[in-house]
Amino acid sequence: MPEIENAPNNNALFGKYELGRLLGCGAFAKVYHARNVSTGQSVAIKIINKKKIAGTSLMSNIKREISIMRNLSHPNIVKLYEVLASKTKIYFVLEFVKGGELFAKVAKGRFTEDLSRKYFQQLISAVGFCHSRGIFHRDLKPENLLLDESGSLKVSDFGLSAVKEQIRPDGLLHTLCGTPAYVAPEILTKRGYDGAMIDVWSCGVILYVLNAGYLPFNDPNLMAMYKKIYKGEYRCPKWFSSDLRRFLSRLLDTNPEKRITIDEMLRDPWFKKGYKEVNFYDEEVKVEEFKVTELNAFDIISFSSGLNLSGLFDDSCNSSDSGLQRFVSTESPEKIVEKIEDFAKVEKLKVKSKKDWGVELGGQSGNLVFGVDVYRLTEKLVVVEAKKRGGDTGCYKDMWKNKLRPQLNGLSLSMAMSPQPETSQIAGC
């Protein structure tokens, strides 16, 4: 099937999605409206060109975005249904939000205070949910907020998001990011910041824009605008109520330690008016509930060198530098581990440890230590991963390439078995 470039073609993507009109595009991605050919469901498909992001930090951003979005199930957050990939493209299959960007609505004129409050309450519900999962958006703005056909707000674009694991020992994040008019003053100091507090600041700017129809901090000169942000210099229009002014002053407090928290917002008189707590089913599943390690689409993408999925099916794509080798099999994990243990006995290798579907082997007077782990990919497929953990690299390569791997050949799934050798579909999320 031809690759999708400037316009969709008539073929269904992966035999599953029929692409429609272009919804938007940026430097590295295009977003199309699409239809699931089997269910008729409308979706949005974000297509990322891997060639344009190769060798940049954006590759790690994309992996992080996938990891983040798979853990977010909330009615005010755009849902990620699945991720597909080919050798040159990555496809995010997302919830289609028919109403478009909130920015387009407010650009036509400011909202009433009641309508602004409604959208702001939904925004805070979503942002608070993210924070409770250790996720910080870091690029909240009206362009990243969508409205569905019923008028509900949906937060999108987690490409610049951070997770708690990125917090440094000083308890702060340090990567400089965001959109200039919405960045918090502490980001400008370059001394680190609290991810939750910069999201709160951006929410404050958004609330101001919804009610005023323009930005609180704005200047054609970027440095002049940054100076206003740093000093917290803004004026409220005369139509802002006193309660809204007071609430905004707490959101746009230049001192992050004094800035209102989301828990405090929920108790604020202005915010509480007409507020209804969002009830939803949290689909998060604890990993320890599985007896067998499961892999889904997101893990597969992370496993593939440069996001090239053929690495799972073709030995030539495995990493020779790190000693990491993988292949896909239709055999059961038990059968594979049994075969490895039989091999170890013949080669007089010691089984140093065994956990779940993993075996660590050692021998040759300490010159060789390597592990083989088996992960369940789908109900019928598993990934076998081998990696050197110690000893001589040459011994490991010889043992794997010339001895163990040939023993497992009958268990592996060749690329020829894929219905589309040039475009491999990842298992659904």
From TrEMBL:
Family designation: Belongs to the protein kinase superfamily. CAMK Ser/Thr protein kinase family. SNF1 subfamily.
SUPFAM superfamilies assigned: Protein kinase-like (PK-like)
One GO MF term attached to the UniProt entry: protein serine/threonine kinase activity
Highest taxon, organism lineage: Eukaryota
Listed Pfam families: NAF, Pkinase
Domain Protein kinase: 17-271
PROSITE patterns: NAF (PS50816), PROTEIN_KINASE_ATP (PS00107), PROTEIN_KINASE_DOM (PS50011), PROTEIN_KINASE_ST (PS00108)
PANTHER family noted in UniProt: CALCIUM/CALMODULIN-DEPENDENT PROTEIN KINASE KINASE-RELATED, CBL-INTERACTING SERINE_THREONINE-PROTEIN KINASE 11
Keywords recorded for this protein, A-Z: ATP-binding, Kinase, Manganese, Nucleotide-binding, Serine/threonine-protein kinase, Transferase
E.C. designation(s): 2.7.11.1
Named cofactor requirement(s): Mn(2+)
Keyword Acyltransferase: no
Catalysis: reaction(s): L-seryl-[protein] + ATP = O-phospho-L-seryl-[protein] + ADP + H(+); L-threonyl-[protein] + ATP = O-phospho-L-threonyl-[protein] + ADP + H(+)
Gene Ontology biological process terms, A to Z: signal transduction
Binding of ATP, residues: 46
InterPro entries linked to this entry: Kinase-like_dom_sf, NAF/FISL_domain, NAF_dom, Prot_kinase_dom, Protein_kinase_ATP_BS, Ser/Thr_kinase_AS
Domain NAF span(s) in chain numbering: 290-314
Full protein name: non-specific serine/threonine protein kinase
